[in-house]
Amino acid sequence: MTLVETDPPAPQAADPAEASTAPFLLHRVRVARRRRLSDGFMRVTFTGPTLHRFADPGLDQRIKLILPSGEGSLDALPLVDDWYGAWRAIPDDLRPVIRTYTTRAVRPAAREVDVDLVVHEPCGPAGRFAQDCREGDEVVLCGPNRGCAAGAGGVDFRLPPSTDRVLVAGDETALPAVARILEGLPGRVRGEVLLEVPSALDAAQLPAAPAGVAVRVLARDGAEHGSLLAPAVRAAAGRLLDAHRGEEPEDVDVDAGLLWEVPGDGAIARSDGPFYAWLAGEASMIKALRRMLVAELGVDRRSVAFMGYWRKGRAEGD
User: Fold this and answer.
1) Under CATH, which architecture does the 165-310 domain have?
2) What CATH number does the domain located at 21-144 have?
3) 206: how many CB neighbours lie within 10 A of its CB?
4) At the N or C end, where does the chain have fewer CB atoms within 10 A?
5) What is the pTM of this model?
């Protein structure tokens, strides 16, 4: 018998995502399928070889969707831990577009992530992607890392353990987050969930709420944005609170800064309060709702999480 010497097989390069303990990871993914949920929403399912590393804490987990710009390519963005620094170093005309979303469903074993995208006119880059994407189109997702022992962060709904009354309110951009929050609410809480959307059909697929939580869908049907949510929040808070005048909240210029405060995230959280509010949507509307709760109705500001998801007339990053 003749023995023939052969070179040993070359060692396979380790997947950097497997070894990384960074809070967030970039994933090169492609569109697996998309489904029209309503005139205002498109569900896009992404798949990719590293999505088994995508953590799913539920609730309002934030992720980033990174899209190629008109002139640029996703190849310009390296899949490294300091991805944001690398992104900023890309020339403006080639830099990929970043938009923030909430995961609607994560299936690590199937290596799939669902994201519900708002579709409206006029369309920005993400809206055009939602309308025009096809199976196989590539994007990059930035999501929480299952390998990060401390937890990645990006979850802003933080219900204190002793709190049993909750108010959740938002516009259509908050609908995917509200859906996940409904799925994660403990059965002990009672409260109200208020959603102002263009059409009632936009909220038709909301999950069931716990027995003590009422869900109210406010269909604008052409009314001015925010005009239905403000009186509904006031009425709901009156049902849930013993009203008294509270402290005047710090003023925030929504055109100059980010309207975003989460108790416990660089702020002092109230861990023993009976009431917790979560507000998300257009920044000027959320600012007014926050002022109503804190200054007019006496809610402790440490019991209110508020997020300006977008600003009228401004794209994310402007």
Assistant:
1) 3-Layer(aba) Sandwich (3.40)
2) 2.40.30.10
3) 16
4) N
5) 0.85
